[in-house]
Design a protein that fits this description.
Distance between the termini: 94 Å
Number of strands: 0
Helix content: over 70%
Order of helices and strands: HHHHHHH
Strand content: under 5%
Structural class: mainly alpha
Shape: elongated
Length: about 280
């Protein structure tokens, strides 16, 4: 995977985190106003807060699909994209149905939303187990770190989904307003987790990290291959130089002497031809 694709994946992840932060904050506000200020919610606020919920779910679905496309549709991420699409469709049908035919969707709408949240929660908890087992089996430190990170994120998402499901069932189906605290907690935890992940992706420098969704062997980029080739060449030259020096030292030790340039002996003139001054 080249650097450009990795950067696109990182930016897509930032987009998903940003939308999820808005979506989970919206969830907390829905539970709060639907129970504490119900007349205000029923008359005005639901027409603003509920559309935000299903619009953001469609955005997350589209961005997850884009992420799967950029990673060549690995099985785990492709399944996640499909689940996001199904949940977005269910949420949209329930909310719009409640606007159009409130009496008919008074029970059916919350029931469909609870099923969608519950199904998504089960998927995330299953993903947490999958990544956790995969992390326990791998021996590569960098891959183990990424898999543990995915396991923790999936576990948090699963817990948020479970709290949301419980809040929808108890508040909307069983008419227990005091249980709205579950939905408010789910939104607060989800918003915090999304913000933290978004900040982490913003400050993250592009690096050749391992793709935890892919089962294919990782390939070096062109730049990495060039760097590796240059390093191998340098190592080969250094090894050849060391070998040459060692060979010269070995030849000196074997011969016992060093052939130096021969010096010409000074010519001594015969006594009879000495300069008259010396006579």
């Amino acid at each position: 995977m080249d650097a450009v694709t990795k950067e696109k994946i990182r930016k897509t992840g930032i987009g998903i985190s940003s939308v999820l932060a808005m979506d989970t904050l919206d969830l907390s506000l829905i539970f709060y106003f639907a129970t504490v200020f119900k007349p205000l919610f029923e008359s005005i606020l639901k027409f603003a807060l509920l559309p935000i919920a299903f619009i953001s779910s469609w955005i997350v679905s589209a961005l997850t699909l884009r992420q799967a496309y950029l990673k060549n549709f690995p099985g785990q991420l492709t399944a996640k994209a499909i689940i996001e699409f199904v949940c977005a469709a269910a949420l949209t049908a329930s909310i719009l149905g409640g606007f159009i035919a409130a009496a008919a969707f008074a029970v059916a709408g919350p029931a469909v939303i609870a099923c969608a949240f519950g199904f998504k929660s089960l998927y995330n908890l299953g993903s947490a187990i999958y990544f956790g087992v995969k992390a326990a089996k791998t021996t590569d430190p960098s891959q183990k770190y990424e898999l543990k990170k995915q396991a923790i994120e999936s576990a948090i998402s699963g817990c948020i989904g479970a709290l949301s499901t419980a809040g929808v069932i108890t508040v909307l189906l069983l008419a227990k307003p005091f249980m709205a605290i579950l939905g408010i907690m789910a939104g607060a935890i989800g918003c915090t987790a999304a913000v933290i992940k978004g900040i982490d992706l913003v400050v993250q420098k592009p690096s050749p990290t391992i793709d935890t969704y892919s089962d294919q062997p990782q390939k070096l980029s062109t730049n990495a291959k060039i760097v590796k080739s240059v390093n191998l060449t340098k190592n080969a030259l250094n090894s050849a130089s060391e070998f040459t020096l060692e060979s010269k030292d070995l030849s000196i030790e074997k011969t016992g002497n060093i052939n130096l340039p021969a010096q010409q002996p000074a010519k001594i003139e015969e006594a009879g031809n000495l300069s008259p001054i010396l006579k």
